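Sharing a chain and its predicted structure for anyone who wants a worked example. Both blocks are below, sequence first, tokens second.
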Amino acid sequence: MKPALPLRHRLLIALLGLCAAGLAAFATASVLLLDRSLLARVDAQLTEVAATFGRRPVPPPPPVGMGRAVELPTQFRIAFYSPAGALLRNLPTENTNGPAIPPAMIFTVARGPVTVPARTGSEQWRVLVKDLPDGTRLAVSMSLEPN
């Protein structure tokens, strides 16, 4: 018969187990809080940009042969849709990759930003769709991938 572990060894094992469980819980909570905080920051930026673009009419496309198209100084993608869901305008126009916004999201405007996949690749985008006073819809999106 094998002798039982001394009390101090059992207490040490229990203490190490509790410490490991506490650290695991703390790490999980930290990651979840950081994720929530970063998404809240992106959502605030999307709301601010949507409010800015929502006060202005849809910008017309640049005349053919007349300079460059409007470029955004950030990683935002702006899209204007008709009430029927047809794409009216993209900013920037050279939109190589962006969010794959489902048509249902254009027709039924969500209350807040939604995470959608990219058209190509595994990138994730956060998208906010807003109704404009003239009936058009504004979709503001931002990549969730680090630059």
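Comments welcome. Strands lie at 76-81, 87-91, 114-117, 124-131, 137-143.
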